[in-house]
Amino acid sequence: MPTVPDDTSHDASPSHRLRERLAPLLSLASTRGDRRLPSERDMMARLQTTRITLREALNELEAEGCVYRENRRGWFVSPPRLRYDLLACLPFHEMVRSQQRSARTLLLSAEEVIAPVTVARRLGLAEGERVYRICRARLVDERRVLYVEHHLLPRCFPAILEFDLARESLTELYRREYGIRVGRVSYELGTCVLSSDAASALNAVRGSPAQRITRINHDQNGRAIDCDDEYWRHDAIELTLSAAPQGV
Amino acid sequence: MPTVPDDTSHDASPSHRLRERLAPLLSLASTRGDRRLPSERDMMARLQTTRITLREALNELEAEGCVYRENRRGWFVSPPRLRYDLLACLPFHEMVRSQQRSARTLLLSAEEVIAPVTVARRLGLAEGERVYRICRARLVDERRVLYVEHHLLPRCFPAILEFDLARESLTELYRREYGIRVGRVSYELGTCVLSSDAASALNAVRGSPAQRITRINHDQNGRAIDCDDEYWRHDAIELTLSAAPQGV
DNA sequence: AACCTTCTTTGGTCTATACCAGAAAGCTGG
DNA sequence: CCAGCTTTCTGGTATAGACCAAAGAAGGTT
């Protein structure tokens, strides 16, 4: 959202004042096509401050989700967040398009590998068993916002790597080609930072704040069939969910 | 100053090496009862670096959830995350105790106020209508990890402010005193930073990364009865959730 | 023993400067 | 017109030093 963070507090610290003076630059940048902010040295000069102080203010705005940066390319104003309904289970492209945004997927790798221990545990595999791993980067309005690592059970999806995985939705493939429908999903959510793999896939800086969404899909019989680890730029999404309580 | 060129065989960046040299301090601190790290100046001297560089490394570790800080008190090693099942809907104290941790609640304020617009919209109120607002800080193992603002419809819960809100669970009160049970919950999740209110309640620095969990409770007829905004220290929880997909 | 004041430590913030490596832009030759 | 090289710009990272305000400890007073 190009909205300037609410600054109504009486706090008059220099850094706070710096944020205020930064605000016009943000709203200016948000009108540009590429949402780009001026260079750090430029802003530093305009705002009469040091680069360290400026970067501290920018880091704060980044944590709030107002701005983000691309590795060695500069700072940008964050677009509005995408709403992600955890239980709707819409394929990525549908979800994005239903919100009048454009979606694109890049296939980074698709291969058979020995299952990492954490994946093996999730899928109920023994040590050393093999899985398909599919790594993809996904873009919303041409901004790289999501890095996903998918791990699938080969016995459920033989030869799935042959399909056009950059264009096809996996859940769609499951149903059309394998007659498998997801009966139950389990999520694990938490904040984290981007690993170097994820960071380079997203043109981000290693260590940027991120939202992790780990999802395990089960078939109609409750057996795990695949799992994926999603790493979102933290300012790119807002999660929603609505259900009846279970524990009662 | 004549900076000595680093050794020829460095495969990691200086900041990476700094993290490695920081590791022993972390494991040392985690054995202390209070999990406290040495002072910044102390660490800086031990690791032969600058305060700015050191703080950058610590900020990174903070973003990863390895360490956290308390305002003007210092740095600490983060305890293991609490698991928070969104659909179990356990009262806080039960959830915490079921994981062999200790829980405590501080009542910060409980009063009748004019509903903020966002709350009014969630609860289906007209502008200017009144609600009860309850603010609490919650501790796990005596660490302040959660700041909650609760907003309730007065017509559903007359005189609820009379109860001992620091000790009683709200959902428990709903059921016992008002015969109301939650029929449906809606969540909105996202990363954010601590507001100054939240920060001071948690002894945190304004602007620390946080996990927001907004929850709207509905009664058996689907009418909203209350909502709460939870702000967690982001390293304190891991969210889980398991359900059947709806959208299919 | 409870309270208040003083002093020291410590984190929070800021200034100023420097060098390196990747990205972008510009140039050049085929 | 394009591929490939070179230069420039820019962010990433680091050093050194400084002041302030809050927290905590120490000590004195009631």
Automatic annotation (TrEMBL), chains A, B:
Q: Which GO terms describe its biological process?
A: negative regulation of DNA-templated transcription
Q: Which UniProt keywords apply?
A: DNA-binding, Transcription, Transcription regulation
The keyword DNA-binding is annotated on this UniProt entry: yes
* InterPro entries reported for this sequence: Bact_HTH_transcr_reg, Chorismate_lyase_/UTRA_dom_sf, Tscrpt_reg_HTH_GntR, UTRA, WH-like_DNA-bd_sf, WH_DNA-bd_sf
The answer on whether this UniProt entry bears the keyword rRNA-binding reads: no
Q: Which domain of life does the UniProt lineage start with?
A: Bacteria
Q: HTH gntR-type domain: from which residue to which, for each copy?
A: 12-80
The GO molecular function terms of this record are: DNA binding; DNA-binding transcription factor activity
- Classification via SUPFAM superfamilies: Chorismate lyase-like, Winged helix' DNA-binding domain
Name this protein carries in UniProt = UTRA domain-containing protein
Species this protein is from: Halomonas sp. RT37
Lineage of the source organism?
Bacteria, Pseudomonadati, Pseudomonadota, Gammaproteobacteria, Oceanospirillales
